[in-house]
Amino acid sequence: MSAALSFLPKRKLLLRVAFALASVVLLHTLWRGTRAVMASAAQTPAGHPLRYLSPVAMQLSPDGRWLYVVCQDGDRVLVVDTHTRQVVRQMRVAHRPGGIAVSSDGRTLYVTSEWQDTVAEIDAEHLVVRRTFATGAGPVGVVMDRAGTTLYVANTLSDDVSIFNLSTGMESKRLVAGRFPQYITASRDGRYIYVANLLVRGPSDQPPVSELTVIDAQHQTIAARVAIPGVIQLRTIAELSNSASGELLIPFMRPKNLNPLVQIHQGWYLTHGMAVVLPPHTAKNQGNTFRVVEVLLD
């Protein structure tokens, strides 16, 4: 009886070791099987590896015939025929492209590379790179001025905007923006370059204040730093097409703790909204400063 009892701990130990070994064998078998299934699923019918393209930006050619799509994870630009709605051409670009601009004559594309800190000047007809410009850190948004002589690039990681003279290909100036400038556009009248900053300014323990950076395109200087209080993550900038006053629409998110009566019963932390920005000296804003109206959408 005592011998049987003394053997019991050893038997339990052997059973545990056997169970552990069986578990390892089973997990290894499952892992190999999963790899085989994933490898098979990650092949196109032609047998080529599948890669998500992740489109992040697009621009139409001036005549509306071509749509240029920047695919960030695919490191390429797609050319879509707007008549047939088919991808007709594509080209590889530098790693992690982020933004695109098209010249007024439609002959040139400008594509930023967020990880290479460059912007490529591309022949739109032949899809070949003519020149490459070195920018600040993490360039994303890019736009040309109305005259087509100057290129503006928003550098997200260095918090500034590179200004390039396109006749020389040299960076003529770099202006300080807000935090993480990402979206950039030119006003229709050619007077301003607008830059939306994704991150807020000021201390983290205070209510957030986002900034719309306004650049005077003629003098290439900061014309205004428009504060949009209480909101975070300014996104795409749109200028109303049917307005002579140049109103801007900028989507944002607003932290819930600043709107205690908004959607309390749903328990949401953030609410979405739109900033309506009125430039100075216009029909709807006779003052000499930018006016901001915030509209909550949900």
List the helices and strands and how they pair.
Elements: H1 2-41, E1 55-60, E2 66-71, E3 76-81, E4 86-92, E5 97-102, E6 108-113, E7 118-123, E8 128-134, E9 139-144, E10 150-155, E11 160-165, E12 170-176, E13 179-186, E14 192-199, E15 209-216, E16 221-229, E17 238-239, E18 248-255, E19 270-278, E20 291-296
Antiparallel strand pairs: 1-2, 2-3, 3-4, 5-6, 6-7, 7-8, 9-10, 10-11, 11-12, 13-14, 14-15, 15-16, 17-18, 18-19, 19-20
Structure description:
The chain has about 300 residues and is mainly beta. About 15% of the residues lie in helices and about 45% in strands. The protein contains 1 helix and 20 strands. The strands form 5 sheets. It has a 4-stranded antiparallel β-sheet with strand order 1-2-3-4, with no helix packed on it. The protein is globular, with a radius of gyration of 27 Å.
